[in-house]
Each structure stands twice: as C-alpha cells, then as structure tokens.
Model the fold of this input.
Amino acid sequence: MTEPRRHIHLEHDGKLLLVDLQGNGPAIPQMGRKGEGGFSIRLPTPEEAKGMGLTWNTKRTNRFRLGQEMHEVIVATPEITWPGEWAWKDAVISDSEVDPVARESVYRTLHRVVSKVVITNPSNQILMAKVTRGFFTGCWTLRLVRVMEQTPSQLSDRRFSPLMVFVGFLLPTNVKRIFLQRK
Done:
C-alpha cells in the first residue's frame, strides 16, 4: 500500500489557504467556474505551508480515500491575524478547478446544526437567522448560541429560561435575526 498524500487545511474565520499546482499561494477559487476535467488549485502540503513562514495549531487529522489514493489532511488554525487575502471557504466547493481533496476537506468542516432545544419568545415564535455572506447567503438557519461547555443531555436535566437554552455553534455576527411564527 502506498503512503497517503499529505495536505494541510489551514482555516481562519472562514478563510482557507489554497495554492496553485506549483505550491504558490494564496490561490483564489472562482464560484461557479466549470473546469475542463483537471484542477489548478489545491490545499498546500505541510512543507509548503512551513515554507511560507506559517505555524499552526492542529485540531485533528482526517484520513480518507478518493479514487485509488489515500489522503491525510491536517486540519489546523494558522497562528496569524485574519488572512483577508486567502480564499473564502464557501467558494471552494463551487469551483470545479479546485482539487477534489480540498473540496472534500471543506465538506468535512461544515457545521451541521443539531438541536435539542429551540429559542422562542412569548409570542411562540422561533428565533431564526438569515445568512448574509458566503455560499449560503439568503438561507435561513436556527440562531445558535453557546450557553456553556456542557453536553445537551446535561443541559436537558436543568431548567433554563427560554432565552438561555439553545446549544450549538456561534454564528457570525453578520446575520440578520428574526422570529418566525411557529405553527
């Protein structure tokens, strides 16, 4: 069996480092671009990222197979200020010129909303948020607030006011918030 190909997924607040086929970056995907069967943008290798002077905090390593090749992707946060010149993570999945390994890595980092409790107001309306940037602009989602570092089962054993009970991931501050009437 061959050694897995190594990549690094460096992400900082929605921005992702991508490089061209020669390892030069940052490279920027174009949403909606149709490729000609190949790709021209990819994740860097750990060695390429180090060569750019980057250091990072590793969160985890994902291992998966695409076709006949095994891939190992280090998912990490770079130790830099916000990299405005890097690619938006949301643009990666809609550009056919981006390596499928990079797209798969982004899919694996997307948050999925799982909830045991919903925030309602006295009029029995559910708190929702409308995303205002990125690939999911215009889509509605539940408004998520982290109450504390406890599991949902620990939280369900306690009594909270309706404004304190939602558990999940924090949404960016640039979302519109509304209450929708619950049926």
